[in-house]
Amino acid sequence: MKRIAVLTSGGDAPGMNAAIRAVVRTGLAKGWDVLGVRCGYAGLISGDIFTLGARDVGGIIQRGGTILGSARCLEFQTGQGRLAALSQLHQHGIEALVVIGGNGSQTGAHALSELDFPVVGVASTIDNDLYGSDITIGVDTALNVSLEAIDRLKVTASSHRRAFLVEVMGHKCGYLALMAAIAGGAEAVIIPEEETDPEAVATELRAAYGNGKAHAIVVVAEGARYNAEGMAQHFKTHQERLGFELRVTRLGHVQRGGAPGSFDRLLGTNLGAAATDQLVIGEHGVLIGLLKGEIAATPLAEVVANRKSLDLRPLRLARILAQ
């Protein structure tokens, strides 16, 4: 093997640049040419591909986002689009591709692999919903951003004896919300994996005040049935009966931005380096992730065929600790 490429796709995640840097420098150390693809699969189809050197990835490990850019690409979901991408890979003399991203990105990686092109995926998404990795690049930093917001809101909530609802990202996965609720000492948490009735939340919050608490924090995942908007509207409609309303803070894409923490820098580095090692031994069509504390390769066919489930045991713990 003499020439590989790397791309980032889907939602950006803190630590992606660390993974890019590791792929480039370990690839160069193996004597390969390394190319970057701008704007994910869209750039692959259009041929927006360029050479990356060691200095091109200098000073990026501490930067959030991705220097390669990312974009949604509906065209790649078609057979014609995938063949166009494959043609560009061949035209540029690329012999293997490293794809850094989450579920949609790895679905694309699997599609290319099914066309007999060597692809290795790297697990990266703040949602932590990707099968084949216990924790993915970006999760730890996004969680710490959420915690900082919760800690700050708790201060003003205590000052005014108010209830605050904090909506965090996570698409259809409640991992970020659940972990932020436990680590942030929230009084209630709402996740997509378990139905939560607004009246049950109101009961929990009244219990918190009844126990002498000066504040109440509810953490809700954006993909929950009763998200921030729905929950706040219920409390507003029934404010006279419930006795209080919820002030809403949506963190949104703030969680994606900023410098990655040490964990995500190290995770991105180790997974990126492992991706090129995988290509050396001739094993591809796999996702590189972290399983039981060890770097592991999971076939992309398994990754796209399975949905990662959320362990609900911490939810019971969160309810006990909220008393």
Across the major sheet, the strand order is 3-2-1-4-5-10-11
**Principal-axis shape:** elongated
Mean pLDDT: 92
Q: Enumerate how many helices there are, as a single number.
A: 12
**Share of helical residues:** 40-55%
| Amino-to-carboxy terminus distance | 59 Å
Pattern of helices and strands: EHEHEHEHEHEHEHEHHEHEEHH
**CA-atom Rg in angstroms:** 22 Å
Helix and strand composition category: alpha/beta
Poorly predicted runs of 5 or more residues: none
Number of strands: 11
Biggest beta-sheet profile: 7 strands, mixed
Strand content: 15-25%
Task: Give an overview of the whole structure.
- The model has no long low-confidence stretch (mean pLDDT 92).
- With 323 residues, the chain is of the alpha/beta class.
- A seven-stranded mixed sheet has the order 3-2-1-4-5-10-11, with helices on both faces. The chain has a four-stranded parallel sheet with strand order 7-8-6-9, sandwiched between helices.
- Helix 6 runs parallel beside helix 12.
- The chain starts with a strand and ends with a helix.
- The protein has helices at 16-29, 40-46, 79-91, 103-114, 139-160, 175-184, 198-210, 228-237, 239-242, 262-280, 300-305, 313-321; strands at 3-8, 33-37, 49-52, 96-101, 119-123, 163-168, 188-190, 216-221, 246-250, 286-291, 294-299.
